[in-house]
Design goal:
This protein has 4 helices and 13 strands. It has 324 residues and is of the alpha+beta class. The chain has a single domain, classed as Alpha-Beta Complex (paralog of FGE (formylglycine-generating enzyme)), CATH 3.90.1580.
């Protein structure tokens, strides 16, 4: 048996609370059959690692805040010097919230359903008059990238790379369309918290939920991971590029990925806010608008922006056992 296999076997026997060990390996990353940013499908590889079985919850994030006094980006007013020319009302402490328009709208204009809401943050998901009192086991939302990193550091863990996240989400089903196989709803059974009906105005709630669901309400994938698809998008460490950056072996096995400069939105040349890859889709992904409830799907998210449908889960790599 190789030294590498011995290490994997040893690590597998060191369980971490509410985490699954992912043995690593090669897999087909991305897709040529769906959205252009998922292409090209290509061979990728990851080393073994642990990953949270569940997305980070409001209860877990509340413990972090109680111990550290941390204020998320949504709870802090933006600095005018960081956003030259911004209207004063857009510099207030706020976050992005979904608003149901209750009638068909032009899908080309996302402002028909997204609203910048002062007072919206992780404690107040829909705005200042909402709360998480009855949502402690729901995934944390309204966390920008720096907030996700701060929580990860406190927890003694790290955010996953895009490749690690996708490999884990596939649950051992290399090349399958969904995390559970080829059929979206086997025998009519919802396998994830997504949007049923015509987005953004008609939510049939066939899966039982209109917004986020408590973690662990749908079947786990082959690695014992819950809600890798739907519920909330999850942050990864990779900079976004408009196509899958194919892994290239170099310098003793290092991997070349997109860089910060590539991540800027070319449609907004005057706004240099870098973007990270988010994965997994959310409760707002629908057949008529955003069919991104698949492991290969990916989206760009500005690192300074939090929303009501983006959260996180964390990993531990063999060379970084948690300190908590």
């Amino acid at each position: 048996m190789s030294v590498g296999q011995n290490l994997v076997d040893k690590l597998r026997c060191l369980p971490l609370a509410d985490m699954s060990f992912i043995p690593g390996g090669r897999f087909v990353m991305g897709s040529d059959q769906h959205y252009p940013e998922e292409a090209p499908a290509h061979q990728a590889s990851v080393e073994g690692f642990w990953i949270d079985k569940y997305a980070v919850t409001n209860e877990q994030f509340a413990q972090f805040v109680a111990e550290t006094g941390y204020l998320t980006s949504a709870e802090r007013p933006a600095r005018a010097e960081d956003y030259p020319g911004a209207k004063p009302e857009l510099l207030r402490a706020a976050s992005v919230v979904f608003r149901n328009p209750h009638a068909p709208v032009d899908l080309r204009d996302h402002y028909n359903w997204w609203t910048y809401v002062p007072g919206a943050d992780w404690r107040h998901p829909e705005g200042p008059n909402s709360s998480i009192d009855d949502r402690l086991q729901h995934p944390i939302v309204h966390v920008a990238y720096e907030d996700a990193e701060a929580y990860a550091k406190w927890a003694g863990k790290e955010l996953p790379t895009e490749a690690e996240w996708e490999f884990a989400a596939r649950g051992g089903l290399d090349g399958a369309t969904y995390a559970w196989g080829e059929e979206f709803a086997p025998s009519g059974r919802p396998m994830a918290n997504t949007w049923q009906g015509e987005f953004p105005w008609q939510n049939l709630r066939i899966d039982g939920y209109e917004g986020t669901a408590p973690v662990g309400q749908f079947p786990p994938n082959g690695y014992g991971l819950y809600d890798m698809i739907g519920n909330v998008w999850e942050w990864t460490t990779d900079w976004y590029s408009p196509h899958q950056p194919v892994q290239k072996a170099c310098c003793g096995g290092a991997v070349a990925r997109a860089d910060r400069e590539q991540s800027y939105d070319p449609l907004l040349p005057g706004i240099k806010i870098p973007r990270k890859v988010i994965k997994g889709g959310s409760f707002l992904c629908a057949p008529n608008y955003c069919r991104r409830y698949r492991p290969a799907a990916r989206m760009a998210q500005p690192i300074d922006t939090s929303t009501c449908h983006i959260g996180l889960r964390l990993v531990v790599r063999p060379d970084a056992r948690p300190n908590k």
